[in-house]
Amino acid sequence: MIPETLTPSRLVLPSERPPVRVEAPHAPSFRRELYAWWQLGLLLLLVGWGRVTGRSSAAGYGRR
Q1: Are 44 and 53 in contact (CB under 8 A)?
Q2: pLDDT tens, per residue, the chain with 64 residues
Q3: Model pTM above 0.90
């Protein structure tokens, strides 16, 4: 057991703590969602272009 002299004291008493406010999360903005879809589409386009031109390979993806 830890001796009483080494036990830390409380910084704030539980009765002195302010209440915690709980709020509903905000919905993501339309721009953020649009950007995510844009990034996904760009990735699919680049992967597709690599397959069409024959430049895609597992080693190439590993290097990138």
Answers
A1: no
A2: 778 888 888 788 888 888 999 999 988 889 999 999 999 999 999 888 888 887 777 777 777 7
A3: no
